[in-house]
Amino acid sequence: MPFYDRNNIFARILRGEAPCTKVYEDEFAFAFNDIYPKARIHVLVIPKGEYVSLVDFSQSAPPEMIAGFWRAVTKIAERLGVADGYRIGSNVGPGGGQVVFHFHVHILSGPRT
Ligand code: 5GP
Questions:
Q1: Rounded to whole angstroms, how far apart are CA atoms 75 and 88?
Q2: Atom of ligand 1 nearest to the CA of 97
C-alpha cells in the first residue's frame, strides 16, 4: 500500500488549510465541488481518515466508517437534487488515473463538460 502523505491537497482541505466549496460534512465524510468539473455536477466525497485509495479504505477502515462514508455518498447525491440520477467513480492508483492519494469518490451528474 502506498504511503499516506499528510500534505496531500485533500488532507489540507479537510484540515481547513486549503480552500474549497463545501457541499456536505458529517462525522465520516466531507464533500466539496471538484475544481475542474467534468459534468454539470461534480462533487468529491472524502472520508475523515487517512486512506490512500479505495483499496486502502476497504481493507483498513473500521466497519462503522465504511458504512458511514457510503451512506454519506448517497445522502449527498440526494441533497444535490440529481433527480435524473448520477454516476459515482473512484480512480485507484496511477494506472487508474488517481492523482490525489486521499481516497475519494466522484459524484457526477448532467452532461459531461
Ligand atoms: P483523481 O484523478 O485523483 O480521482 O481526481 C482528483 C480530482 O481532484 C480531479 O478531478 C481534480 O480536478 C480534483 N482536484 C485536484 N486538486 C483540487 C483542489 O485543489 N481542489 C478541488 N476542489 N479539487 C481538486
A1: 13
A2: 2
Whether residue 4 lies inside any domain: the answer is no
What is the C-alpha to C-alpha distance for residues 98 and 95, in angstroms, rounded to an integer?
Answer: 7
Q: Is the CB of 99 under 6 A from ligand 1?
A: yes
Using one digit for the tens of pLDDT, what is the confidence trace for 37-69? 999 999 999 999 999 999 999 999 999 999 999
Domain count, the chain: 1
In a domain, 21, yes or no: yes
- Percent of the chain scoring above 70 in pLDDT: 98
Q: pLDDT grade, residue 21 (50/70/90)?
A: very high
Q: How much is the pTM?
A: 0.96
C-alpha cell read off for 79:
441533497
Q: What is the CATH number of the domain that holds 102?
A: 3.30.428.10
Is 2 part of a structural domain of the chain? Answer: no
Neighbours of 53 (CB within 10 A): 21
Residue 86: which domain range? 9-112
| Contact 39 CB / ligand 1 (< 6 Å) | no
